[in-house]
Specification:
With 518 residues, the protein is of the alpha/beta class. Among the domains are: 6-15 and 29-148, 3-Layer(aba) Sandwich (Rossmann fold), CATH 3.40.50; 413-511, 2-Layer Sandwich (GMP Synthetase, Chain A, domain 3), CATH 3.30.300. It has 18 helices and 28 strands. It has a 15-stranded mixed sheet that branches. Strands 7-6-5-3-4-8 form a 6-stranded parallel sheet. A 3-stranded mixed sheet has the order 26-27-28. A hairpin with a 5-residue loop joins strand 1 and strand 2 (26-28). The longest helix has 18 residues, at 29-46. The protein is globular and about 70 Å long. It starts with 5 loop residues before the first helix and ends in a 7-residue tail after the last helix.
Length: 518
């Protein structure tokens, strides 16, 4: 094919700074290439064969990037594990993925040890000192950093966030392609947003790399020859500082990041040179229209949106698209298609609500070990097969998609459907709100009533007065029948770092002991 793909680029220019750790440590492409190839030789000697896989419980940085590159070079599946999980949750993913090895950073040694029980002790490895794990250097030390033979493209196998039951591995068939050719094909993702290859492009990684989109966008940027700059933990002012210091050109973010950026004092917001930034790409959660508009007003036409899932995608909205269709998450991207259907699977007309389906990409996917769930989420059409993750939305006359909520989150109160996202979006723009969740709780008369849980911004005093103020702010913007009947306050909203709200953690206690849990 062409000249893109990390391995080709690294061989042509081994001195290129390919990654910068959160502590500022720089890694050349040549160094990463050698580390990844040494790991391939070591794992092959351990018995790993094409189609096998391994897990990594590692923070953002070059260690996790090395695992990713080794898997993609040798035809293996790499599963990055959410480091916020407990030992038993980690063990489920390790066992379910049939991992042949587990890599753990010393930071997560305690839960990693509990989660590593399904793996034989001689196949547990650590970056840094971790009891019950062998140092990675011990595994790779005697192996060469030379290009391995029989190279074939591997893949990542991410696990869904498990909003309904245990997480499921999203497994795609291996392509059998040369790793660089496969990597070059993935660069079509970023070119859809107008992102260009080569240096001096710099991609800022703001969220944990165990998230599908973060892995995909940062990996694609690397394969285009961009430098990856990693953040260890999200901080709004630090993000602006890094953009200026490293002349960042692109980043992948979520709407909660926008809210925190916009809440910075005006002086701080304008203290950093952001002129290098050309592409801020966001997804993962609905973005309230005023928040998106404020970001466009501040950053200019550099804010792009898309709609997709771990399973695939999707839709894309350029800044121009969004300005013409405020609130849209985009139009079907090239080679893709969107479909909105009723409960019988029949397409609905423009403007009508229904379940959103996306056309399956090349090769498709399966939920590992769960053929029933795989089939349930599919819809066969004349032009191919579609899948859904349960979102409710509508298409306008021009084919732009608007999301309303997850099907499972719809509140049915007195027989009326209420979409929490609509109320969340209105409360989110209040100047004293950092984050908000709306959901249904049991009500003997109405079936469900609307509950709001709010994380106030620093300086805002939680209590009855703030609750009343928030409800008053809905006057004239949201029908009273949709207003929350009560408002609770929380120190920190349970979101995963990809931006996805873990609403079950808030909602489940209210439904404990009941037959029906919405």
């Amino acid at each position: 094919m062409g000249s893109l793909g990390f391995w080709r680029l690294a061989e042509a220019d081994p001195g290129w700074i390919a990654a910068v750790d959160p502590d500022g440590t720089e890694h050349t492409a040549g160094d990463l290439l050698t580390r990844a190839d040494r790991l391939v030789h070591a794992l092959r000697a351990l018995g790993l064969r094409t189609g096998d896989g391994f897990c990594g419980l590692v923070p953002n940085g070059a260690d996790g990037l090395t695992l990713y590159l080794a898997a993609l070079r040798a035809g293996w599946y790499y599963t990055p594990v959410n480091w916020h999980l407990t030992g038993p949750e980690i063990a489920h993913i390790v066992a379910d993925s049939e991992a042949k090895a587990l890599f753990v950073h010393e930071r997560y040694a305690a839960e990693g040890a509990r989660g590593g029980e399904p793996i034989a002790p001689d196949r547990r490895f650590s970056f840094g000192a971790a009891p019950e794990f062998r140092p990675v250097a011990e595994l790779t030390g005697r192996h060469p950093g030379t290009p391995p033979s029989g190279r074939t493209a591997g893949a990542t196998m991410h696990y869904t966030s498990g909003t309904t039951g245990r997480p499921k591995g999203v497994r795609r068939p291996l392509s059998g392609l040369d790793p660089d050719d496969a990597a070059e094909m993935t660069t079509a993702l970023l070119t859809m947003f107008g992102v260009t290859p080569g240096r001096p492009n710099v991609h800022l990684v703001t969220s944990p790399a165990y998230h599908t989109a973060v892995t995909l966008f940062s990996g694609t940027a690397l394969h285009m020859g961009h430098t990856l700059v990693y953040m260890d933990k999200w901080n709004a002012e630090e993000m602006l500082r890094l953009c200026a210091a490293y002349r960042v050109t692109s980043s992948h973010m979520v709407p909660t990041h926008f809210k925190h950026l916009l809440s910075l004092p005006e002086k701080v917001r304008h203290a950093h040179d952001l002129s290098s930034v050309r592409w801020i790409i966001h997804a993962a959660a609905p973005c309230p229209v005023p928040v998106k508009r404020a970001m466009l007003d501040w950053w200019g036409d550099r804010v792009y949106e898309y709609y997709a899932a771990t399973e695939g995608g999707g839709a894309i909205a350029t800044p121009e698209d969004w300005r013409k269709h405020p609130g849209t998450v985009g139009k079907a991207w090239p080679s893709g298609a969107l479909l909105v259907v009723d409960d019988e699977g029949r397409p609905v007309p423009p403007g009508a609500h229904g379940t959103v389906y996306m056309k399956l990409g090349r090769g498709g996917f399966a939920y590992k070990g769960d053929p029933v769930k795989t089939r349930e989420n599919r819809l066969a059409r004349e032009d191919g097969e579609y899948f859904t993750v349960g979102d409710v939305g509508h298409l306008d006359e021009d084919g732009f998609l608007f999301l309303h909520d997850r099907k499972a989150d719809v509140i049915i109160s007195g027989g009326a459907n209420i979409y929490p996202a609509e109320i969340e979006n209105e409360l989110m723009v209040h100047p004293k709100v950092a984050d908000v969740a709306v959901f249904g709780v049991p009500d003997e008369e109405w079936g469900e009533r609307v509950k709001a849980v709010v994380e106030p911004l620093p300086g805002a005093e939680p209590g009855p007065e703030l609750a009343a103020e928030l409800l008053r702010s809905l006057e004239g913007r949201v029908a009273r029948m949709k207003w929350p009947r009560s408002v609770d306050f929380i120190d920190e909203m349970p979101r995963d770092p990809s931006g996805k709200l873990l609403k079950r953690k808030l909602r489940d206690p209210y439904w404990a002991g009941r037959d029906r849990a919405i």
